[in-house]
Amino acid sequence: MSTKYVYFFGNGEADGRGELKNLLGGKGANLAEMTAIGLPVPPGFTISTEVCTAFYKNDRNYPECLPEEVAANLRKIEAVIGNRFGDPANPLLVSVRSGARASMPGMMDTILNLGLNDDTVQGVIAKSGDARFAYDAYRRFVQMYSDVVLDVKKDIFEHQMDEVKAKRGIKLDTDLTADDLRQLVATFKATVLQQTGKPFPADPSEQLWGAIGAVFGSWMNQRAITYRRLNNIPADWGTAVSVQAMVFGNMGDDCATGVAFTRNPSTGEKIFYGEFLVNAQGEDVVAGIRTPQPVNKAEGDGILPSLEEVMPDCYAQLIGIQGVLEKHYRDMQDIEFTIEKGKLYMLQTRNGKRTAAAAVRVAVEMVKEGLISEKEAVLRVGPEQLDQLLHPSLDPKAKKEVIAKGLPASPGAASGEVVFSADEAESAAKLNRKVILVRVETSPEDIHGMNAAQGILTARGGMTSHAAVVARGMGKCCVAGCSEIKVDYKAQSFVARDGVVIKKGEVITLDGSSGEVIKGAVATVQTGLSGAFGELMVWADGFRRLKVRTNADTPHDAKVAREFGAEGIGLCRTEHMFFEADRIMAVREMILAADLDGRKLALAKILPMQKGDFLGIFREMKGLPVTIRLLDPPLHEFLPHTDAEIEGLAKSMQVPFATLKHKVESLHEFNPMLGHRGCRLGITYPEIYDMQVQAIMEAACELIKNEGYAIVPEIMIPLVAHVKELAVLRANAIRVCDEVIARYGVKVEYLIGTMIELPRAALTADQIATEAEFFSFGTNDLTQTTFGLSRDDAGRFLPFYVEKDLFEDDPFVALDQSGVGQLVEMGCVKGRATRPEIKLGICGEHGGEPSSVIFCHKIGLDYVSCSPFRVPIARLAAAHAALGGSEDRTK
């Protein structure tokens, strides 16, 4: 039996269903599903994603049977509608839209009103009795088709349209007459001939196949590629193409088009929420060309009438349908609708993009409403989304000069220099400059700049505009539809209320929760987590096996991590304590000392300071495990490097400049990452590690003896490559521990282990486990030494590797599971073979990255450790791992 490539839907019947999303794409599957459950959906058909795969595999050629399948399904549409494709007297017009399995709003191409030409437009006029509507549809079609299929820039057409409006003294597209629009069609077609050397295609069949090819081609356009990379969507998924009979929202004042959400996509509040335009087509709403009106009276501003007021019958029907859709899909829906001559049609439904706060609230409330289970709720929220919840908000006590106010399209707060193009935003981000991207309106071509910017400000567009939807998906702060600003690209500035002029490079602040635009930088505060978030995380903790610790070097960091649910400290870096102003001089004395006695004298000054650090950290962790890494970086990092800095230190330490400079030069290394650091320091200067172990144990003994704490310190020796290194340093540590315990007269359990951060350590983990009671995989250095990459230098070329698909991800962001991950897994297996009860964890930055956490669960680690603000992300990722899920890419 030959492969079926085309799936029909219409008249209450459908070849496909919602579960065929991988084959029909999200749009096609949901159109079929809505048809099957009896909703008013214009008939159409979907060409499957398998055709897209074949299209690219066969040098952009289609399967031989496809034309006949398309023709047969076109005839089915004609039978339902009663119109014929290409018939001058009774023409069928169609839309051609993309639809991948993962939602990619605005990233690929759409064409409306296909089938129009100089003959069929007369048929539309005769049937509708409205020449203005017919020519409006025609000029839109020529404009869209020329842009998408013929690659004639749409700006040319926009400019020509603006010239006509200026000449007639009008502002809105809706004020153009039938004659104006007819003239524009002629102008547009003349432009196509001039730009391409070929006339605009008049044959509807040629138009259709041109559009289908362009939609498949758009899967590989730059904005789609960028969006897939940012959202981890595989290129081999492909897109489907849906061809659907047109319904028209631009036939007069009893027609409309709109976009709505079954719940508020910013807050998650259970209220029907959306925007529409009377006498318009779909792209008018999302493109921000006209200011849309609210669907709900309650959500309006009292200025523009709502759909509830303008078309109450259609509104009531829409309310009923949105309830049916939410119950059917058991998730918040993003729907598109058109009203033609008072009749409502559904054009799309999909799981709605939402902010992290909305995702959490919707998931928790749907459990309480009985729509989903706690397990489903946990899996509904992508771990990486939680990063948004930790975004700062403006300090309510801070002074602010509000210069404009728009729509609060995506929450959060952001400050940065103003730039006016996506390319500028991306270039600035590469130089670590924080910028706000300011546009009249964004388009899919701006995706790279939106990703690079701290926040987005647009003069036009609504809550469902491209800027709003994409910003919410990215977790970027966004203020949209800010009509109080006038953007001038030529002058590289914008004018706000009261004539305030903001030029390129000046700093502004956006409040995405209120819609305020503020001059200058404004202080921020961290957002608290409670309510629905707390409930969701309790459920997540109930499902996960993997423990989550934190990387914390101070009592403050430890306190923050505990508040985020950390179950201990997996990495306390003692060298960070050495840089404190009150002890750096003593550390430098120790480094510059001429002999052992001099070093011990300096270390005696540092000992009480280190002990104080550990007392504070142990108190904050209240009996939870704390892994303390002994000194790791090379000693030269604690000394100044320029002559001016050396001279200043020489004066303060009362040593000759030449002596200090000679010492600095003697400690210089060509490759310090692989030099005299970590356990190598402990071998050559054992007194340093002895002091640190003494400080750790004295702090533990005092808290156990005086405050009744139950503490099991975990002493970690870094950069071990050979078991003999660990054997020597373990023996030294045990000697110091036992001396302190005897002196205090208390019983203290302690563990001594190592950080596995060199390939040789992973390869010989069975030997190293004879001396180690725990392993903590330091995947930052393990990645460096496995790849032969320097983290400090790789940033110059790694983005290129990711962009060109040489690397799937930056290996310092997401764990390289097939390379570095195999070393980690090997270390686990070998370690447990020698010591079955060995404790295994990870403490690199990968400990807070969702896909890496899921990998750690699969290979049987006991815990992951990450920075305090990533603890909730790791907790949720660990729950996803236990439940066999991962982040839902459709959210």
Description of the molecule:
Helices cover 45% and strands 17% of the residues. The protein has 891 residues and is an alpha/beta fold. The longest helix is centred in the last third of the chain and has 26 residues, at 596-621. The two termini are 37 Å apart.
Q: What labels describe this entry?
A:
alpha/beta; eight-stranded parallel beta barrel; 36 helices; 891 residues; disordered C terminus
Summarize the structure.
This protein has 891 residues and is an alpha/beta fold. 45% of the residues lie in helices and 17% in strands. The strands form 6 sheets. The chain has an 8-stranded mixed sheet.
Determine the oligomeric state from the structure. Answer: single chain
Instruction: Give the DSSP E fraction (strand runs of 2 or more residues).
Output: 15-25%
General shape: elongated
Rg from alpha-carbon coordinates: 32 Å
- In DSSP terms (H or I, runs of 4 or more residues), the helix count works out at 36
**Mean pLDDT over all positions:** 90
Please give the alpha-carbon distance between the first and last residues: 37 Å
The level of helicity is: 40-55%
Which sequence of strands runs across the widest sheet? 13-23-22-15-16-17-18-14
Structural class: alpha/beta
Described by strand count, sense and barrel closure, the largest sheet is: 8 strands, mixed
Count every beta strand, where a strand is a DSSP E run of 2 or more residues: 32
Low-confidence stretches at least 5 residues in length (pLDDT < 50)? 887-891
Topology overview:
Layout: E1 6-10, E2 13-14, H1 21-36, E3 44-47, H2 49-57, H3 66-81, E4 94-100, E5 110-114, H4 120-128, H5 131-148, H6 154-168, H7 178-196, H8 204-218, H9 222-231, E6 239-245, E7 256-261, E8 273-278, H10 282-287, E9 293-294, H11 307-310, H12 312-329, E10 333-340, E11 343-351, H13 356-368, H14 374-380, H15 386-389, E12 393-394, E13 401-405, E14 407-410, E15 413-419, H16 422-430, E16 435-439, H17 447-452, E17 455-458, H18 466-474, E18 477-480, E19 486-488, E20 493-495, E21 501-503, E22 507-511, E23 516-519, E24 524-525, H19 532-543, E25 547-551, H20 555-563, E26 569-573, H21 574-578, H22 584-592, H23 596-621, E27 626-629, H24 643-653, H25 657-666, H26 679-684, H27 686-707, E28 713-717, H28 723-744, E29 751-756, H29 759-763, H30 765-768, E30 774-777, H31 779-787, H32 791-794, H33 798-803, H34 820-834, E31 839-842, H35 850-858, E32 863-866, H36 871-883
Parallel strand pairs: 15-16, 16-17, 17-18, 25-26, 25-32, 26-27, 27-28, 28-29, 29-30, 30-31, 31-32
Antiparallel strand pairs: 1-2, 1-3, 3-6, 4-5, 4-6, 7-8, 7-10, 8-9, 10-11, 12-24, 13-23, 14-18, 15-22, 19-20, 20-21, 22-23
